[in-house]
Structures are given as C-alpha cells and as structure tokens.
Description:
Blueprint: H1 2-9, H2 11-30, H3 36-39, H4 44-55, H5 81-91, H6 97-117, H7 121-138, H8 146-168, H9 175-192, H10 196-204, H11 206-211, H12 223-246, E1 254-257, E2 263-266, H13 271-281, H14 289-302, H15 306-322, H16 333-352, E3 356-359, E4 382-385, H17 388-405, H18 411-417, H19 420-437, H20 440-454, H21 459-472, H22 490-502, H23 507-523, H24 527-537, H25 539-542, H26 548-567, H27 571-582, H28 587-590, H29 605-614, H30 624-646, H31 659-669, H32 680-692, H33 696-704, H34 715-738, E5 744-746, H35 747-753, H36 758-770, E6 776-779, E7 784-787, H37 795-815
Parallel strand pairs: 3-4
Antiparallel strand pairs: 1-2, 5-7, 6-7
Amino acid sequence: MSRFFEAGSSDSDTSSSDEELYSESEEEQSSDEGEEEEASDDFSDDGDSDDDSDSDSDGGPTSFLKSDAKGGASRFLRGEESEESDEDESRRVVKSAKDKRLEEIDSSIRTIDNAKKINDWVVISNEFDKLNKIITKATQQGTTPKAYIKAIVELEDFMNESIRAEKSAKKKMNATNARALNTIKQRIRKNNRSYEDDIEKYKADPEGFENAPELSTETPAPLAKRKNAEFEAAAAFSAARQSATDEPANEAEFATIGRGGRTVAITAESIFKQLRTILEARGKKNTDRAEQIGTLTKMLSVAATTYQKIRVLLVLISTRFDLTGAAAAYMPIPQWEAALAEITQLLEILEKEPLFIVTEEAEDREDEDGADEPTTAGGQVVKIFGSIVSLVERLDDEFTRSLQNIDPHTPEYIERLTEESALYKIVVRSQCYFEGADLVNSVNRILERRIKLLYYKPEQLIKIAEENTWSSLPKTVTSKITPYAEEKDPSKLIHEICAALYKQDNRLFRTHAMLCEVYHHALHNRYFHARDLLLMSHLQATIHTADIQTQIMYNRTLVQVGLCAFREGMIYETQQALQEISGTGRVKELLAQGIQMQRYTQTSPEQEKIERQRQIPFHEHINLELLECVYLTSSMLLEIPFMAQCGFAPDAKKRTISKSFRRMLDYHERQVFTGPPENTRDHIMLASKSLATGDWKRARELIKAIKIWDLMPETEKIKEMLGQKIQEEGLCTYLFTYAPFYETLSISNLASMFDMTERKATALVSKLISNNDIAAALDQKTNAIVFTSGVEYSRLQNFSLALSDKAVQLLDSYKYR
C-alpha cells in the first residue's frame, strides 16, 4: 500500500501533467478546423487513455494507475525515469496542419527541382500531380502559397526550353520520357490558367511577390451561416434566371447563369474563354450537355468573325453527338436534324471562305480572349484543327442506328428513311469541299460512305437521288472525281467512285469498293462482269481474315451473285454460289439480318447487344424466303438426276451435291401422311418426288405455284425458264433410271414424252453421251438411241464388289505398316 500513498503524495507531478495537457489541448483548438482530422492524429493516444480512465470506477485504486498524459499507467511506477520523460515531452513540438502542408509542398518542389536536373519528366509528372492535390487541400480555407506560384512558373519555363531543345536535338529522348513530357505539357497549361493573376504578379516583380505578406486565413462560417449563404445564392440564381427570361438580352450581348447564381456575360470578346470552359467540362460527370448546347447556340449568334463561327460550330456539333448517352438506342431525331443543319451551315461558311481549311493535320491552337485571331489577310491560308469527315460519318452512323431500332413495319420507319436524301446531299457536298481543299484522306473516307449509300439501290433510284442532290446544291459546288451529267449512267458513277478508291493504299477501302461494285452489277443482271471482278479480287482466299463487317459484305455480295445467276438460268452456278451461305443453316447471322439463336448455346447480353449493332437496316435486306426457294429449287434440279444416276451404288448416299436438301428430302419421305403443300419448302419437296418418279408435269406445276416468284423481276420469264429446266432434268432422270431396260429408244418418242422438239432432245442426249453419263450411241439413220449392252450387276453383286474393294485397301494398308 505504500506505493499508493507515495503516488498520492506526488501532487506536483500530477498538476504539471494537467498543465501540459491543457496547453496541448489549446494548441489543438488553435489549429486549422478544415484539417482537424490530420492535426488530431498526434493526440490519438491521449484520447485512448481518456476512454480508459472513464471506464474505471470513481475513486478506485486503479484510477491512480492511468493518466491522461502521454506516459500511460507506468508514469507513476517509473520513479526515477519520470524526470527523463518530462524532459522528452518538453522537447516535443506540436505542428499545425498549415505547417505540415507547407512542408509537404516544399518537399514536392524539391523533388521536382532534382528531377529537372536529370530531365526526368516521369518523376516531374507524378510529383506535379501530387503537388496539385496538396494545393487543392491547402487552398480550401486560405490563399495559394507563393512557393507554389514560383514553382509552376519555373516549371513552365523549363518545359518550354525542353521542348525547344528536343526539336533541335539530334538524339531524341526515349518514348516514355517523351510521352510524359507531352502529358505534362497539357496539364501545366490547363493548370496555370487558374492562377493567371498570381503568375502575372510574380513575373512582373518576383522579389516583391515573394516578400509580400500572406493573407490571413478566414475561418469557415458556422453551419447556420453557410445554409443562409446557400439560400441567398439560390435566391440570386432564381432571380437572375427570371430576369434573363423576362428581359431578353440584346443581339450583341446576352447573359447566362453560372455557378452560385452569378451572371456570366457572353460577348464576342469572351467566346474563346467560354469555349475553353465547355471543352474542359466535356466528358466529366454531372455535366449538363443540354445547357452547354443552349450556351453554344447563343454563342454562335454572338460570334462576329468567320474564325469564331467555325470554332463554335465544331464544338457545338460535337456536343450534340455527346448528348446521346450509352443507354440511348440512337440519337434523338430533333438533335440529329439540328446537327445536319449545323454541318450544312459549316460547309456553307467554308465554301464562301476557301482560305479557312478545317483539317486534322492543323495544330490545335489555344486561343486567348483579346489575342489576335488568325486572318486570311494577304491570301494567307488558315488551318483550323477539326475533322468534318468524322462529323459526317457520325451523322451517318446515327442515321443507321435509328433505322436499326425503329420497327420497319411502321410509318415512322418510312418517315425516317425519307431523310436519307438530306444525308446523301451532305455527303456529296462534303466530298466537293474536301476535293477543293485537297484533303486526300477525307476524300477517300467520304467516298466510301457515298458508295455504301448507293450500291444496293436500283439504277432508277440512284439517278433520282443524283438529280435531286445536284439541283439543290449551289452551282459553284463541283466535283472532279464524280462530275455530274444529266444523261450519266448510274453504273458509270459507281465505277468512278470505286476506281478512285482502288488507287488508294488503304486495303479496307479497296475491298469495300470491290464488293460494292460486284453487288451492283449482280443486282442489275450483269453476271459475267460481276463474276469476273469477284474472281480477280481473290477475296475468297483471304476473306476469313477480314473484320466482321467486311465478311458480312462479302456474304451479301456472294448471295446476290447467286441470285443473278439464277435469273440468268445458270442453275449449277447458282447452287455453287449459294451453297456456302444457305447450306449452313445460319443465313440470318451470316447476312446480318437477325440473330439466330443456336440450340444448347447461351449468349450474354453484351454479345447480343454487339450482334444487334451489326444488323443492317431493313430496307437493305435480302428476302430470306426467296433465297431459300432459289437454293432448294437449284438443288432439286441437280440432286434428283444425280440420285438417279447413282442408282443402287453402295456409296450413293455418301455422294451428295447438297446435304441440306438431301436431309429435307429424307425427312419428307419418312412422313406417314403427306398433305397438300402449305409453304415453299413443301412445294419443292413434292416437286422433287414427282420429278424422281418421272412426273415432270406435276413437278412443273408445283414449282410454278410458288408465290414467292412474284417478288423477282420478270416473273413470267423466270417461270418459263424453270419449266424448261424441269423438262430437261426430267428427261435426264428418265434416261438414268430406265436405260438398263432399253436396247434402243426413238428420239421422237422421247421428245413427245417430254413435250419438246426432237432437235432439243437430240442435243440433250448427245451431251449425256459425250460426258459418259450413259453408255449409248446415236443412230442417225433411224434417229434412235442405241444403248450399249454391258454386264449388269444385281444389288447383291454391287455390295460384294464394294466389300472386296475395301478388303483390298485394308490389306494394302496392313502391308505398308
């Protein structure tokens, strides 16, 4: 118990500890309230000890073991060591948050100065970002430190010297360092705009600026006062907006409301400052793009010079496209129409002022308010950084997206489609401007867009579109690549556009131009021209390495070539062209005309969204039912005679021309009851069975009864062609089936059986004999077919021969092991 009395007697020690705690608490309260979290870190241990002492019972003996001072419970037990701990605590210095900030700023500035000595821009960039974060916190309740202003001025000067030295240096810096230099170049210029006044004061008198006294830090207002200030700001904002609504500004100047209810006046002299503000806010969260569009629209009306109008229009059009968020399916139609009108206005300005050229190769100028604007005085060409072709491409993409998402069976789709003429007009007009400004890359990109708007249309529509476009354009707008003529053949226009793209080094442009030209020729029944172009391109060998959109274009072109061959009566060529697409069972997916869900497969929502974005608009679709009808009819005319020719050969089922057709035919034959045909596939399957049994007339009636033929041009001509083909293949099937039962067969009887002339029947039989399809000869005296008598094998003998051949192959393979 002696130690308790001894501890209780040390009143002086306890009182001195209380005084130290009191002084420390006063220093804590005098520190910056905005940074109280960091300032209180040094006293965290004290708070813990307070909590412990409160938890003990009042007046208990253990209360003497715990202290609020920094020694803990062992302070009264240390005895002689208590004096040393008092000396340590007396030497301990408590720093305020402001002093800590200044030390961090000085440390970052020293690091930047050291990095400048070795020209390490990676370190400079990282420390500059760190320094700006510290300054952001330090200036919340006070002024900007003078050391920071001095540091950013010196850093900007050093950066400019490094850039000049880099341009003239023979040995360039490494890629990482150069990338960091380019990054910090933009950051310094953007950052220094916020401190323009302080920077000007420093440059005017560096010594006086550093020796000037620091302004006192303002303490934050209480919560009630801050709420009152926010209420007053909101009231001022509402009053200013109401006054702006009730009293419109004059034509030369108008007012807009900024943050905090402050009125911001926009004049011709302050346009560039406002543009810079809008560009800096682009892409950030909580940015009101609709408000930006309204501000830019008013700025356009205030712009006094041509240069100002061009700069404002470029930003305004881009902002309209930004208005469409990721969640939106397509750009709102009113915004699209407004963007179309503004691009037209921009082109009109550039056509009137040909010395102003908007190009991607120009340097991005940072225009300052009050600075001299670039002018065309003395015939000087002014290049403005921008890309009109990108704006036109985005306009075209948004138009396509809207067509993809609008129901094609509604009047809204038709109304939207009528605006394609205005889009085509913009494309042609921009092409003429790019040619006049000698922007080769832009010309190629816009030519590709133009050919994609034309290649799938009939020539009558192309001619109408050209007439309407050129009649509405000014006569000063002309094109050297595609000059307009009233009697010009549309196919010649297609060739002129494609020929210009063939000359370019861009492989993608050449590929797309080739596919578009082949598609156009195939659409207008120029089969041999389309086939020769496709074969000369050698695309079939490399198309599997192309991108998805190019593969879709190739599939569409191949299908159109097959349909063209069918209209020309070339059945074998039709089947060969369509086999690769129609025989897969994935026609919708390959032609980008719908998403075909496969069995036992799951598609993620992201993948499904990508697939939907690839779909082509409805008015460019190829009729899939017509495509299936053409493919199955061609397969029937080839497969049925081939099946009759194979007969009872053991490998007859393995030898097929069209596996998909053979599969459908087998399924149809396994049906117990077959009713009357209801769809296109039923008509063709019944016609195939009739043709196989020799009833060619029934087969012809079933094929002609298909209603889908009415969608093809010259329907009667196609039906007549199909009737003749069925007659010819019926004759071949008859000869393959019943040749073993004849010694001679009269040509006249054969011709009357299939309702054709003897001359035509003779030609068909001669063709079969020359191809060794039948073992026979023609007797011209009796005008009859003389069949060669050979050894006929039964079905059992055929199987025995096939078995012996396989046994010989097995022995040979075993012998050479």
